[in-house]
Write a structure and sequence with these properties.
heterodimer, A: mainly alpha, MetI-like fold, two-stranded antiparallel ribbon, 2 strands, about 0% strand, globular, B: alpha/beta, D-Maltodextrin-Binding Protein, domain 2, 2 domains, six-stranded mixed beta sheet, 15 helices
Chain lengths: ~270, ~400
C-alpha cells in the first residue's frame, strides 16, 4: 500500500520509456525521425556489423581504462579522507564534490585550454625546459580517458569512502596484535572489507563513461567514437530512432549484466564475512 | 550486510551525483554539436536597427489580434525583433531558439509542430519538411518583399522558385587558413586531405556529416548530394586516409585554433571563418578549385500555423532591406537580398572578403538537397571514418 505512489512513478517514468525504447528496436526508421511500425530485425543485424562492434569494444576499453585510473586515484583519496580527523572529513568530502557545482561543459572546455598545443601544460613543460618540443595532448584517446577520470572521480571516491569509513579500527588492531604488518593488514583486512565500495565505485564510473559523448567530442576532437556518440548520432543526425534504440538496448543489457555481477559478488562477500 | 547505516547515505549521495552527471552530459548535447550553419558566437543583438518607415507587407488585414511563435538559431536576428514586428504590424511574436537543424526538425515533426508558426531551417531541411506536407506555400502576394532577392536566389536546388521557403542567409564552405603560417595558400581540397607533411596534425575538418564528406566529394569530382555506394566508398577511403593528418573534427571553435596557431588550415563555413578574421587579419578564406557547396538557411511558414497572415507578415518584414542587412552587419553572413546590400557596412566588406563574393559566384556552389532515406548512409560513413 505504501508502495503505491512510488510504484506509479517508477512505472510511468522508468518502465514506460524503457519499454518504448525496446519496442522501437523492431521497427523501421521513419523518414523524419520517429518510427514506421513495420516489423523488422534488421536493426540487430546492423548492430553486429564490424563498424559498430569496433566502437563497442573501443568504448569498453576506454571506459575500463578510466575506471582503473579513477580507482588508483580514488582509493587512496577515499582512504585518506576516512583517516582524517572527524571535522576535516566533511570539509574534504565537500571539496570532492565542489567541481560538480560548475557546469559540466565549462569544466571540459577548461581541459581543452589545459591540454591544447599552445595550452597551459605545454607552456609549463616547454617554458621550464623539461621538454624541448610541445606534446600533442589534446584530441587523443589519452585526453578522453583523462577527461572521463576527471568528471567521474567523485563517484569513485564516495562509495569507497563509505565502506572504508565504517571499518572497525579494532579489526586492524587485532590484525596487528596477531603479528600482521601494515601491508598484510591492508591486503587481508581493509581491502576485502572495502570491496563492496570498490565495486560500486567502479560501476558508477564505468557506466556513465561508456555512455558519455561530450568528452570524446571535445577532448577527443571527434577522432574517437564511443557508444554514447553512436546512440546520440542515430537519434539526432541520422534521424534513425530504431537503430539508436537498438544500440541503447544493447548497452542496457550489457550494464544489467554488470549490475548482476556486482550483486553476486557483494552477496558472496557478505556471507563470507558474517 | 553489504552496505549498512551511515554509509548508505554516502552511496545515495554518489548515486545522485551520477544522475546529475548524466543530466549534464545530456543537457550539453545541443551546445557541443552545433550542426548545420547555425550562427554561433556572434555579437548577438547589435540593436542598431532603426525601425524602417514606409508601408510593407501587411496591407488590409488587421493583425493586432494575432500572435506567432518564431523558432530561430540564437543570435540570428535582432534581439528586439518582436518589438519591431509589433510596431510595424501590430501583431505580437514570441521567439524560441534552437541550436541545430536536427533540434528544430524534432520540434517540428514530433507532436505535429505544436505552436510554431515560422521556423528557420537550412534549405535541405525545408525540402524535407515540405515533402512531409508540413509547409504552407509561399507566394509573392503573401510575401511581396521577395522581389528584393537576387535573381540567383530564386533558383535554389532544394526549392526552385521559392515555393515553400524564403532564403535568409547563404554561403559556401571553403578553407580557412593562416596565411602567415603556410608557405603557399591552399588551392585544392587535397591540400587539407593529403597535406604537406609539415602541416600534419594542424588541420581541422567539420564534423557534421554532409560537410565532413564535402572535401572528399569535391576532390573526387562527385556531387555533394552523392548517394551512389561506389562513390561513397571512395569518399570514405579518402577521408579515412585524411584522418591521420588531422588535429581533429571541429564545428564550433576551429577559428580559435587558427587564432592560437594550433591549426593552420580548417575546413570552414565562410561566415565562421570571419570570426577568426575579426581577431587576426592573417586568417584568410578561400574556395578550393574543385568547387564547393552552397548552403542556405531559410524561413518557412508551417501549415499548422493558426495566424498565417501574421506569419507571412513576419517573413516579409525580415526581407525588408534594412532589417535583413542586420544579419551581415552583425553575424558576417552573406544574405540573398539585393536591395539590402546598400545597407551593409562598407568597412565590413573590406575586412571580410567573403562578403564581397557576389550572388552569382556564391551560387556556383552546388546546392545541398535532402537525400531522404540515404541520409543513413552518411551517418554510417561518418561513423566509419571517425572510428577508424
Amino acid at each position: 500500500m505504501f508502495l503505491g505512489p512510488g510504484l506509479v512513478f517508477i512505472t510511468l517514468f522508468v518502465a514506460v520509456p524503457v519499454l518504448l525504447v525496446v519496442s522501437y528496436t523492431v521497427f523501421l526508421r521513419g523518414r523524419f525521425g520517429g518510427v514506421d511500425y513495420i516489423f523488422t530485425l534488421d536493426n540487430f543485424l546492423r548492430a553486429w556489423e564490424p563498424t559498430y562492434r569496433k566502437v563497442l569494444v573501443e568504448s569498453v576499453g576506454i571506459a575500463a581504462a578510466a575506471t582503473a585510473i579513477a580507482l588508483a586515484i580514488g582509493y587512496p583519496a577515499a582512504y585518506a579522507i576516512a583517516q582524517a580527523p572527524g571535522r576535516w572529513r566533511n570539509v574534504l568530502l565537500v571539496a570532492v564534490v565542489i567541481p560538480f557545482w560548475t557546469n559540466f561543459l565549462i569544466r571540459i572546455y577548461a581541459w581543452v585550454i589545459l591540454l591544447s598545443n599552445q595550452g597551459v601544460v605545454n607552456d609549463v613543460l616547454v617554458g621550464s625546459g623539461i621538454l624541448n618540443e610541445r606534446l600533442t595532448l589534446l584530441y587523443t584517446k589519452g585526453a578522453v580517458v583523462a577527461g572521463l577520470v576527471y568528471v567521474y572521480l567523485p563517484l569513485m571516491i564516495m562509495p569507497i569512502y563509505a565502506s572504508v569509513a565504517r571499518l572497525d579500527v579494532e579489526l586492524r588492531e587485532a590484525s596487528a596484535n596477531l603479528g600482521a604488518n601494515k601491508v598484510t593488514t591492508f591486503l587481508r583486512v581493509t581491502l576485502p572489507l572495502s570491496l563492496p565500495g570498490v565495486i560500486a565505485g567502479s560501476i558508477f564510473v564505468f557506466v556513465p563513461s561508456l555512455g558519455n559523448f561530450v568528452v570524446p567530442e571535445l577532448l577527443g576532437g571527434g577522432k574517437t567514437v564511443m557508444v554514447g556518440n553512436l546512440v546520440r548520432d542515430q537519434f539526432l543526425k541520422a534521424r534513425d530512432w530504431p537503430f539508436g534504440a537498438t544500440l541503447a538496448l544493447i548497452m542496457i543489457v550489457l550494464l544489467f549484466g554488470l549490475f548482476a555481477l556486482q550483486s553476486i559478488v557483494s552477496r558472496r562477500f557478505a556471507t563470507e564475512v558474517s | 550486510m553489504a552496505i549498512p547505516g551511515s554509509s548508505r547515505i554516502a552511496l545515495l549521495g554518489a548515486a545522485s551525483l551520477l544522475a546529475a552527471a548524466a543530466l549534464a552530459a545530456c543537457g550539453s548535447a545541443g551546445g557541443s554539436s552545433a550542426g548545420g550553419s547555425s550562427a554561433g558566437g556572434s555579437s548577438a543583438g547589435g540593436g542598431t536597427t532603426a525601425p524602417s518607415q514606409g508601408p510593407s507587407g501587411s496591407s488590409a488585414t488587421d493583425l493586432s489580434q494575432q500572435s506567432i511563435v518564431i523558432d530561430n538559431w540564437a543570435g540570428y536576428m535582432p534581439e528586439d525583433i518582436a518589438a519591431q514586428f509589433k510596431a510595424k504590424t501590430g501583431a505580437s511574436a514570441t521567439v524560441s531558439e534552437h541550436a541545430t537543424n536536427e533540434e528544430v526538425m524534432a520540434k517540428l515533426t514530433a507532436g505535429g509542430a505544436v505552436g510554431i508558426d515560422v521556423a528557420f531551417v537550412s534549405g535541405q531541411y525545408a525540402q524535407a519538411l515540405n515533402d512531409a506536407g508540413l509547409l504552407e506555400p509561399i507566394t509573392s502576394e503573401k510575401v511581396p518583399n521577395i522581389k528584393n532577392l537576387f535573381p540567383a536566389a530564386t533558383k535554389l536546388a532544394y526549392d526552385p522558385g521559392n515555393t515553400f521557403s524564403v532564403p535568409y542567409t547563404w554561403g559556401n564552405t571553403g578553407i580557412c587558413y593562416r596565411s602567415d603560417l603556410v608557405d603557399a595558400a591552399p588551392t585544392s581540397w587535397m591540400d587539407i586531405l593529403r597535406p604537406n607533411p609539415q602541416y600534419d596534425g594542424k588541420i581541422t575538418m567539420l564534423s557534421t556529416e554532409r560537410w565532413l564528406a564535402l572535401p572528399a566529394q569535391k576532390a573526387l569530382g562527385f556531387s555533394v548530394n552523392a548517394v551512389d555506394d561506389g562513390q561513397l566508398s571512395q569518399i570514405k577511403n579518402l577521408l579515412i586516409d585524411a584522418k591521420k593528418h588531422l588535429l581533429g573534427y571541429d564545428d564550433t571553435i576551429f577559428y580559435e585554433k587558427l587564432i592560437s596557431g594550433d591549426a593552420v588550415m580548417a575546413e570552414a563555413w565562410d561566415g565562421w571563418c570571419g570570426y577568426g578574421i575579426a581577431e587576426n587579419p592573417d586568417i584568410k578564406f578561400t574556395i578550393p578549385k574543385e568547387g564547393t557547396d552552397l548552403w542556405v538557411d531559410t524561413m518557412v511558414v508551417l501549415k499548422g500555423s493558426k495566424n498565417k497572415d501574421a506569419a507571412f507578415a513576419f517573413v516579409n518584414m525580415m526581407l525588408d532591406p534594412e532589417i535583413h542587412a542586420w544579419v551581415t552587419n552583425n553575424v558576417y553572413y552573406n544574405i540573398p537580398n539585393e536591395a539590402a546590400q546598400k545597407f551593409v557596412d562598407p568597412t565590413l566588406k573590406e575586412k571580410f572578403p567573403a562578403l564581397n563574393v557576389g550572388a552569382d559566384d556564391l551560387t556556383k556552389g552546388e546546392g545541398l538537397v535532402d537525400i531522404g532515406p540515404d541520409a543513413v548512409k552518411y551517418t554510417k560513413l561518418t561513423t566509419d571514418v571517425t572510428s577508424s
